[in-house]
What does this fold into?
Amino acid sequence: MNPTTRQTPDAPATISSSTVCLRAEQLAVGYDSHPVVQGLTLELRAGQALALVGTNGAGKSTFLKTIAGLQPPLAGRLEVLGTYPGGTSGRMAYLNQFQSSELILPLRAADVVRMGRFSARGLLGRMTREDDDLVIASMKRMQVDNLVNAPLRSLSGGQQKRIYLAQILARNADLLVLDEPTAGLDAAGKEVYAEALKKELARGASIVVATHDIREAGTCDLVMLMARRVVALGPAREVITPNALLETFGIILVSDAPGRGLAVVESEHGHDDDQAGPAGGD
It folds into this structure.
């Protein structure tokens, strides 16, 4: 293992567009001594979005967990917000692919969103007016402010996903790491999510998102097609091509409707790559 050099993170008041928020050099990610993807080399600057696209088992979730500091790099170098992965928890927001609503405490929707402020105030820290304003503003952005007092377990899957996305927004983070954030959202929910992310990018935050949605990926600055290796990496217009998608997914459909672009069909769509570790096919 060759993790990055540890540095003390000092969060700037604002992020310059020239700031490198994520840098990987010949990075290998995986479990124990079993690499899933190797040779990851990229640079993501403030205000940019990177989409990771690939089938289940391609290595997307493993890469995201490594960025979040939940999985150590196997080789190479990874720098997150100027320091080592996991060294900037207060400046990064991570959305897992799976969120459980089977919580011991009967939490309200607002309580779940308020958890997004724990990194700034601590688990037992006193919430300020600024924190409360961020919580309400985040819920409004995801159009769930009418559910403030609703028990989380009483909400539909799509409503719960909006609540968890509001929690991510409430972090007011410099880097958002999102694993299948639109899964479970209907068309209206996806539009609300897309608008929220536009505003995050506009304020200078960076985003890394794993997605199966080619249209969502096409709105990002950079796209990485993955198939347990890097098939292609670069601007969306250069990377999302029929040949590259065929190499990534194994099958594509080209729409005849003007302006509809490409649609991708997978033979299976189950859980993503790293939930079960090496035995899970990653």
About this structure: Residues 1-15, 267-281 have pLDDT under 50 and may be disordered. The chain has nine helices and eleven strands. The radius of gyration is 19 Å. The CA atoms of residues 257 and 263 lie 11 Å apart.
